[in-house]
Amino acid sequence: MDQRKRIAIYGGTFDPVHLGHLEIGRRVSQFFVIDEFLFMPARVAPHKVGQEAASALDRYAMLALATQDEPRLSVSRFELDGPGQQYTVDTLAHFRASCSELDELFFVMGADSWAEITTWREWQRLVTLANLIVVTRPGHQTFIEDFAGAASQIVDLRGENDPATFEPVEVEALKIFVTDAVMMDVSATAVRRAARADDEEELKRLVPPSVADYIRKYGLYRNTNEA
Ligand code: ATP
Fold first, then answer.
1. Residue-wise pLDDT tens digits, 79-128
2. What's the CA-to-centroid distance between 160 and ligand 1, angstroms?
3. Secondary structure, 3-state, the chain
4. Which residues constitute the domain of residue 53?
5. Residue 112: CB within 6 Å of ligand 1?
6. Is residue 128 part of a domain?
7. Residue 191 lies in a domain
8. What is the model's pTM?
9. How many domains does the chain have?
């Protein structure tokens, strides 16, 4: 029996989780035949210090509500329970060391995060610990040409999303996959803006009902002062 498991870790601030994040969880799980898809909310996102609008507890609670009815999607408390600022490279090293050697690890990110990858702590080591899955995002270019240092690892899967021709993606050596399996123009910034404006309709378009209810009930994002 094949004991190999595919584990995907999806890091982010999730302030709050939105329908784009959830669709990424579903589609990436399907496309890459992932057994365990873990949303990994950051305790303090190193590159977003000072911008956080909801507490870690609230961000976690909304992720838990949003994934409650989705058997393949879970939320990890690993970074939230850590002693302080946690870097992705350390999280991946931990999971690499603690899961079976046969298990395959994937780290999921959007095109905007990918564009900044070279500013991440020990990014060259990061791409030796897990496969990356870069998801295209409307309004953001996905840079793959001339990519410093890791060009040979890149597998461009854009355009290969037709369910009729769908085949599970096979992985041998560590890769950086680029996929347009999800193309949703949704952002947490837009959710916070809709909450601040008390725009029920817009909120419904961006987050699942349980998250909209939570935002309303606890009055989140009322006083954020971003543009
Ligand atoms: P904000 O608007 O506050 O910047 P966000 O919508 O980008 O937030 P994050 O929690 O920062 O949400 O995102 C976590 C990860 O998911 C990042 O790698 C980001 O690039 C990716 N991501 C978020 N929304 C999308 C989307 N609609 N399409 C593709 N990737 C996305």
1. 999 888 889 999 999 999 999 989 999 999 999 999 899 899 999 899 89
2. 22
3. CCCCCEEEEEEECCCCCCHHHHHHHHHHHHHCCCCEEEEEECCCCHHHCCCCCCCHHHHHHHHHHHHCCCCCEEECCHHHHCCCCCCHHHHHHHHHHHCCCCCEEEEEEEHHHHCCHHHCCCHHHHHHHCEEEEECECCECCCCCCCCCCHHHEEECCCCCCHHHCCCCCCCCCCEEEECCCCCCCCHHHHHHHHHCCCHHHHHHHCCHHHHHHHHHCCCCCCCCCC
4. 6-185
5. yes
6. yes
7. no
8. 0.92
9. 1
